[in-house]
Each structure stands twice: as structure tokens, then as C-alpha cells.
């Protein structure tokens, strides 16, 4: 079985958002206390000698000036934040000590800074952000006021240190990477970067408001640039004058309430093109958002004014860095969090808009200069080593492959230390029995011993069948030979390596190294450079103009049409879905420049950014700088472009000679160039260094083809610059260093790690997300899938090798791997074993396909693959949310269909067909439980599994047809069948994971075992519709009386619950009721014989309500429309109300394991609690507008008062250090913060969890599926409360609302009803049903006719009050009864006077 899923984990940047640590707070307090102690020690110094009298007098004057400066600071401290310090210190006391001569200038300045530091820390962690900001401002002002005193004190001899305190016993601190001076908290960011060997987030530090000093150049941190110092001697348009003008542009674009902007005369003096650029940046969506956020980019502006940037890439890097710091500041200051990704996208959009405009301007200036030289008959004096050329080769202009944008990292990632394992580590002993049972297999050997003695007979691995094409009957079933076989280890059996632990040897056969890779964009550029050079033979280039004009989807189809099988010259399959490369430019002609003119605005590059920005508004934040430029098939283009694309698509297939050339080029890149890149170690980013290595070896081996290929790529890099040939770090990889390489089917190692059941693994993931807010994957985890052919059936376990594992877990991903992970049965146990698929050459990196999937589109877009191979997909993730994979589910397995399946499972028996279907999909006792082990699932859950598998079978056939019908023809019979089978495998994984989660809840003590959803009995339905105290009929009657009768009458009827009480109220107030109300009372008081009679009477009640609405024009149209839905519903259901809330034991989570950056250390409970609050606020914001069902919440709160512990045990995890960090963090912070962190480590299963999880069984990353359930059932299975339809509701019922209702029922019956209307969904009765659900039931069971057409016809033909028809026409709602509908106005009651 191929591994189709690897699960998300926190990324290496998990804790970059954390602010100050607890140790820092303690240090700050100690520093303030130290200053106080120093002040107390000062009077004990020896008296001054007579010859020092003059100096003392001068010092006294300085003391007076210092005291005056401190008094100035005190005056500015209007809030008194510096009057309450640790140990009783305060600014007033410090002033007194200075005036008394007890503190010299140096000691006083340190004490003031320590006092400000303590005030910032205490107020920040005390949630007093305004006070913390005030203290920070006072610190800035103190630094300015005391700067002269500090300089003077620097020339004086240092005062003798105070005597050490008795018996100092400082609390032990964890070893830091580098000890910093005690003033670290006040150093500017660039100074700290110089002290540390690691890059740190500048938002961790408190920066001065003015940023870095203007003109003080900082070293760029691996972002942008070519890695070369460009010492231009000729013409360089990037002049100090241009930078000063750009400073004005940037200031004007960001001017707002907090940033006044440059003087108007400077703006007016700008050239037209720059003036237009400033206006465009300012009016763009990103610019407006940055203005509202108070962005100023002060550091970038200051350096522009000083002309200190060597190129514009450094400017963009600074702007991006300041923007990210602004994002952190905004997120920290918001009481309700906003989406981080959207803010980051705004920064990227603005920076790229600025960069593309500057690049276009520089190109234009260079071209103009070159034309002037040509006109004067002079030679071109431009720099030949220019990194940003005005001309790019056609192949690069046509390149639309996925590109890894953002800052270019040129340093390897910090290796994650791990404990070496020789077996799977069961982290929690209480789960050991279940895990060991799932790791046990009944598969065993039994071969005749004739075909396991040679590698040829052992065969090869077949990915399509997820097994070996082997003559050995054992290996053909992914099983090692054992005692049941005729062979033996002594006889030379080669199929026993896993059992014998015959692995490759780390250090001799393979070696862990810092590995590097390239994205598809760079790979395409390298391939084209070599192919065009003819190094490996003649080659015919494609139509680059057509490729450049094509949309991404067309580009992929055109590349596929000319793809050489196995040659790697095609496009990555994800090219149409992933972000394209940065925008590139052509060399403009003089005529084009003259026609364009400066008065036309910022130029085509900026106009393109405007289009991108519009795409951002529609599609969400781009994943890369150019991510918003995504075109759909056929979007845009003229006849000429369409003809070129059509011609390219119709081009003949490649010739055998061309196929051979492309294959040789791909082999050279993978087997020669990439090993050379990895040999460069920390300098692996430098492609030129790797090419020099290749050239040297080619010269030694007299390899003319390889030498010519290297020279071609080297010339192309020098011609266009490094930015089109970026190499990126991938992390630690495994490289073959055995002489002669590794032969095929060599057993590499087992994939060991900490092992968890699925439900526990996802509890860990939920905790990680709650604490870090991070969703990016960290791929050290993998699924161990039980084989379907095992007698106990298919199931999964989750292996996490982040902290513990074997060296196989450090192997990189590749879309064209040379190794394969296989689930092997070895001596009665199951394991993940890695084998080589082919011969792996010396120096080649060992890789396997992670086969990872994600439900997040953002993750998919961010996951740019760096495998550098010929079949690279562009992304190292499969996107299960892709429309291609959800086409069938979105039509045949909607939310309504899933509710029908749940209701059928709760009412229909399990048949023999159900058991056969479940067995056909390989499900047995491991997933469904067994009576022997006491974990057998209820029959209704078996029925649900069977019905869901029935959909999977239908989806497989339909999905294959959908893929074959793709408009661009990118699927054939083989690929469509493989993709459909992959979707089926993924669906099956989600079923067994969901079953594991449901079993976890149902196995809790005192938990009901009944179905989560079941149909109402006839008696229950009759009570709900007609006879009950809160029956539909009585609620409608009471609502009408409350609307049309006097308040006293309405109150009398509202208090009546029984039939006798209603009769008495009707008789008592008979004369005060309208005739229509009296008729309704008479009808409601009639008994109903059965359910059909009750429905018939509801239809009569509906007719009376329509007539009453027309007669009174009192706004009863909404109630009549809603009653029509109730009366037309055929099936009613209810949910299980007895489920108890389950709270799990804390997950085994070590906070230090959440980050690759081990030097960051353990993080505080305060920071974790802050992140939890922000994550909760974001979830609340995302769920905004979805009204909670109040009664349901009350039930849950009552049940949560006495939660059930359930399975999983109550003891802390046995993993070393897991809970110690948590408890330590809790003690370091407040009880509330520690409690928040402890709560994050416990999973809460609410009473409706079973219903919610089964409703969204195909998604596993939703922390609380009950929230999605609450939203999705609005109007689909839970009709609105009848009370919300009557007058006095929160919003009137407009003609548009009625038209929307009809459209919803006709076009999107499976979609939740929109929010912001009059409808509420409290549903106190917890009864569910609707005509839309009936329609889905008829569709799935193929029984009866859908009631929706009749409901729609009645809704559209019903008469409504004339005044609503006039209102509908006036509102532009269109003609007809649909839009001429009744509404909820405030009616006039009978007898009331009208003004």
C-alpha cells in the first residue's frame, strides 16, 4: 500500500511570534534591584580628597542638570508608570538620590533604563498595553534626554562595583547560545543580529520609533540580490538622486494620520512617472491598508534619503522586513485577531508593486541611455555584470513554472536533533495494548524458496498496485520470508533484510548532509540553457511566444503536448494551480518607449500589479509575490493569441531523437549537477560554485558534453543574474557515499518514530495549532497503513519521527524518487521499510515520495517543491480540496446526502450486502473493533461505514469520467484511473480515522451507544407537528395572535400550553379576535388522527395564514412561507441528546519539540496563553454571524460540569520532558495563563461531536466539527424558528429575502442559509427536517418524488399583499410573485389609530 498521507505538524517557525521570556522579566527586575542596591552602596564610598574639590563642584553641576533631565521625564510620565517599580523603586526616588549625590550619571542612566524596562515588561504581561506603550515611549525620550550625560560618563573612570550580596544563589538558567550584555533589551535590532549567529524576528525587541539611524547600512540577510558585489564603473541609473526621489514617493504613498508625509513642494517636484507611481501606490488596496495600519517604512525612507542602498532589491528587503515587524505589532495590539496571512499578503503585494515599478523604471532609463550613446556614436558603458538585465531570453519569458518567491534564504536550516530508535516508541504506555495489536499482522510467508535468491527474481516495485512485481510469492504480497517458507537465511534468501536489520550504514554507505534544491522555474531555466546549447545533441525549441501568451492551464497543456516521456521537458502538473514566477520584462524598443511616454502613468508593470491586486480581492491573499496572477482556461487574449496557442497544442509529438536529448539533459541535471550542489555544503545556494565543480570534474574526465552543458548554464547565469537561478535549502538529507552506489531493492532502513493512534495524533495536532497558530507542515510524520489483505483488515497508525526516529526519516521528498516506503509484514509485525527503486549513484541524494495531502489551499500553494527532478509536480503536497477531486462529492455527497446516510444508519439494519461491501474495502476488526477486545462499534456505525463506502465506489467511477472529460485533455485512461484510485485510498483513510475518533468518544464511561441521528417515530412526529405543547400549529397560532391581537390577549394565549387552556383562552377573548384568528383557533383545537392528518391540517392552516396576510397586510408573509416548508416536510429526525462531554488527558507535547530552531529555547506560558487568546479570537471572528443554538449550548455547559475522562488515561505522558515544560511554564506565569496552556493540551469532545465528525468525515483537520455542523445545518436540515417569522423580529422580511429563498431552494438546497436575515435557528425541540432533505433522501434511496418542485411552485404562485408587490417593483426585485412578496413590517393592531 502506497503511503498517501503525511500529516501536518508545526513548522520550524512555530515560536517566532513569542515575545519576552520569563527569564528576561526576572533579569529586568534583578537589574532594577541592582540599580537600587548600587544607589544604597554609593554613600559608603570614601570621601573625596581635597585636590578633587574642583571636580566635585563640576560634578555637582552635572548632578543638578541630570536631576533636571530626570524631572523632565517625570513630568512627561502623566500616567505614573515609572512610579511603581520592583523592590519599591521609582523615578522620584532616583531623582532624590541624584540630587543627594548618591548616584553618578552612569548608574542613574542604568537605573532609569531598568525602571522603564520593568514597566514595559510588567504592563505588557499584565495586559495593560497602553501603559506598556507609554513606558516604551518614555524609554525613547529618556534615551534622547540622557544621551549627552551618557557620553560624558563614558569618559570618566568607572565607579567601583558594589560588594556582592551575601550567598548569591541565582536561579539556574538554560544555556543560551551567546551571553549578551545586560542592556540587550535596549539594543537596536542590527546590533543584536551582529551578536547572534541566528537570524531572529526583529519584533521580539523593543525598537526605537525612528527605526535604524538614517544612512547606517545593514547587511542584507540573504534576501534578493545575486550574492555578488556589483562595483559598476559605467552608467548606473540607481543613483542617490533617484533614491531620494523614491524616498519622497514612499513617504507620499504611506502618508496618513500618523505619518504626515513629505512637503508638498517635494512631491510636486517629482518626475511625472514617479508622481504617478506615488499616486498609484497610495490609492491601491495594499497602500490604503498600510496607511490605516500606520506604516511609515521609516528605515527604508531614511536610507533612501541617504542614498545608502546598493540596489533596489535591498530596498525591497528592508520594506518587507519593516512590513513584517508592523504585522507583528498590529497582531499584538488587536483585541480581536485578524488573519495573519491577509496582512502578510498586503505587505507582499505592496512590496512587489513597488519593486516591479522600480525595475520597469530602471530598464527604461538604461534603454534611454543606451539610445543616447548610440545616437552620439559612443560605445555602451553600462555594467556588463548587471544583475537586472533589460533583456531576457525568450525561454525565460515563456517560463510559467511554479516559483518559490519571497526572501531568498542562503543559509542551511538548523538540523533538528533526534534520538536514534531501533523500534517504534509507544509514547503513552496506557495505549500500548491497542497500538501493539494494530502493529501485529496475521500475514506470513510461504514461498517455495526458488525466487528469493536473486535480485532479478525479486523484481521491482509497482507503484500502481502498491506492491512488488516479484516472482517471490512472499515479496509479491509485501511480506518477508519467514519460517513458513522453504528458503532460509543460510540459503541466501534476499527477502529477510528487515527482520535481520540488514540496513545501510550511516557514515559509510550514506551520510546526513545539508541538502539543497531548486523549484520547477529554475529547473526549467537550466534545462532550456543546456538544450539550446546543443551540448547533448540538436534540439528544436518550442514556440516561446505562444507559451508566453498562454494562460497557466494552457501552458501546462502545451508543455504536456511536447513532453518527452521520461525526459522531463514537460510542465509540472501543478503549474496551473501554483504561483507563477516573478514578472519578467522584454527589452523595449525606442519606438515603444516614445509611444508609452512618462505621462501614461507608472507603466505596464504597475498596471499588471493592478490586475494582480484585483485578483487578490477575489481569490484571497497570494501565496507568493506573483501568486495572484492566476488565469483560468480561456481567460483573456485575442484572436492572434488564441491561434498561436491552438497551433502549439496541435504541434506534432517530439521525435525519438529529441526525446533522447531531453532525457540526457535531465539525467545530467539530476545525477551530475545536483550532487555538485550538495557538495558545496553551506554554500549550496551558489549555482556558479557548483558549476565550477562540475566543469573541473568534466575536464578531468574529458567529458565534453558535461563541460559544454556547465558552460552554457554558467553563461546564462552571468547573463541574466542569480535571481532566475535560485537554489534553496531543503534541510537535512541523506546522500549515498558508498563507492559504486546502491543497487535496486536495497533495504535502507525502517521509518521509526513515536507512534500514536489516529485520534490521539489529531489531539496533538489540535494542541499544536492552538498554541502556535501554525498550519505549515513539518514532514517528519507518516501514516503506517495496515494492509487490506490482512485478516484483521485495513487501519492506520501515526508515526512521528521529529524527536525520535531513524536516519530514514531525514530523507528528502522527491516527485521522482529513487526509494520507496513500503508497509512490510515481517515476522508477525508491520513496519514501514524503505527500499531503493533503482541504482542510486554515489553522491546522489536518497529520496522518496512523501505522497502528502492537504485540505488547505494555502498550504498547497505555499508548498513549492524543491526536488529538482524531471517529474516534479510543482508542489510536494496533493490538494484534496481541489475542485477536480471534489466534483463528485460536491454533487452526490453534499451535506444533505451525508445527513440522509446518518439517518438511514440510525434506522436501517445491517444487511449481508453491507458486510460484503465493508469487507470488499478491506475493513475488518482492526478498524471496526471486535467483541473479543471489547471495542466493537455499534451496528449503526457499521451501517454508516457501508453506506459511505457505497458513495466511494460511485465516486471512483464518476471521478474517472470527470477527469477524462477535462477540457484540455490532460488526463488519459491510465492517469485518470490512477487519480481516481488515489482519491478512493484517501477517502478510505479518512473513514478509518473517523471511526477511530468516534470509537474514542463512544468508549468513554456511561456513554450512550445509540445513533447520533435517527428518524422520529409517528408519535413523536405527531406531537411535534400538532398535538404537543410546542407543536408547530400552536406556535403559528400564538405568533399570529401576538401580531394581530391586543397585548393582554396575546399574553393569555402565550401562557396556554394544554388544549383545555387554549380552549379557555379562545372562549374568553373570542370577541377580541379577528374572524381569521377565530378560524385558526378552531382548526388548531381539532385533534389529528395521525401524521398524515396532521400534515393535511397544517396545509389548511397555511391557507388560512395566507388569507389572513392578504386581509390584514400585517407582515405575515414570512410566517406563511416558513409554514409552507414545515407542512411540506415528509421526514423528521432528532439527534442523540445523551452524549456526554469528554475531556482527554493532556497530550504528550514538549514545547521545545515544536521548533527546529532549538536555540530559541523553551517559551513562556504567557506567550503561549497570548497565542491561544489570539487563536480563539480568530476562530470567533471566522464564526461571526453564525448564531449559536442557545439551548444546545446550555445542555453542553451542564454536561461539561461533570465531564467524563474516557479513554486515554488520566496520567501524564511518559515521554521525558513533555509535561515538565508545561508545568514549569504554568508556574512561571499566572494561574490563568498556565490554565490556558494546560487547557490547550486537553481535547474537549462536545456532545454533538459524533454528529459533526461523521458529517465531515472526509476532513480531519477541523478542531471542532460541531461548529461547522451548526453552520451547515442552517436551513438545510434545521428550519428557522417559527417565532422569528413574525413581526418584531430583528430584520424585516423583504422581497429580496423571499426571492433569495426561492433561489436557494432551487439552485443550492444543500447550502446553509445566509446570515443577517430575520431567521433564527435556536431549534429548542432539536427536531430536524426540510423539503431539501426529503429531496436528497429520494435521490439517494431512489424512492418517491422530490417535494422541492411543488414547494417552489407554491412559493412562487402564492398571493402576497399588494403593497409588497409595489415595494418589490420599487426595489428593483423584478416582476412576478417571487419578488412581489410579503414582508415583516410593524403592523397596526385592530382598533389602533393610524397617523
Folded structure, characterized:
With 1395 residues, the chain is α+β, with helices and mostly antiparallel strands. 47% of the residues lie in helices and 6% in strands. Strands 1, 2, 8, 9 and 10 form a 5-stranded mixed sheet that branches. Strands 5-6-14-11 form a 4-stranded mixed sheet. A 3-stranded antiparallel sheet has the order 7-13-12. The longest helix has 36 residues. It is globular and about 105 Å long. The N terminus and C terminus are likely disordered. Pfam families: SDG2_C, SET.
Salient structural properties:
4-stranded mixed β-sheet, 5-stranded mixed β-sheet, about 1400 residues, alpha+beta
- Summarize the amount of helix as a percent range: 40-55%
Choose one word for the global shape: globular
| Main sheet overview | 5 strands, mixed
Computed Rg: 36 Å
Mean of the pLDDT scores?
A: 76
Catalogue the unreliable spans. Answer: 1-56, 156-233, 383-388, 579-637, 1155-1165, 1181-1202, 1206-1230, 1366-1395
- Terminal Cα span: 79 Å
Number of strands: 21
Q: Given the helix and strand composition, which structural class is it?
A: alpha+beta
Count of individual helical segments: 53
Strand content: 5-15%
Write the layout of secondary structure elements.
Blueprint: H1 22-41, H2 53-76, H3 91-99, H4 105-125, H5 129-145, H6 147-154, H7 189-195, H8 240-254, H9 264-268, H10 272-283, H11 285-292, H12 298-305, H13 312-333, H14 340-375, H15 394-397, E1 419-420, E2 425-426, H16 432-439, H17 455-458, E3 460-462, E4 467-469, H18 497-500, E5 510-517, H19 520-533, H20 544-549, H21 552-561, H22 590-596, H23 604-619, H24 639-649, H25 656-678, H26 687-701, H27 704-720, E6 728-736, E7 747-750, E8 753-756, H28 758-772, E9 781-785, E10 796-805, E11 812-813, E12 819-826, E13 829-836, E14 845-848, E15 852-854, H29 857-862, E16 877-879, H30 883-886, H31 889-892, H32 895-905, H33 912-920, H34 925-928, H35 939-964, H36 973-1002, E17 1013-1015, H37 1018-1027, H38 1032-1044, H39 1047-1055, H40 1059-1068, H41 1075-1084, H42 1091-1112, H43 1117-1128, E18 1133-1135, E19 1142-1143, H44 1165-1182, H45 1190-1200, H46 1218-1228, H47 1231-1240, E20 1244-1245, H48 1249-1255, H49 1265-1272, H50 1295-1307, E21 1327-1328, H51 1331-1341, H52 1348-1357, H53 1362-1370
Helix pairs in contact: 1-4, 2-3, 2-5, 4-5, 8-10, 8-12, 11-14, 12-13, 13-14, 14-23, 19-25, 19-27, 25-26, 26-27, 28-44, 32-35, 32-51, 33-35, 35-36, 36-48, 37-42, 38-39, 38-41, 38-42, 39-40, 41-42, 42-43, 44-47, 46-47, 48-49
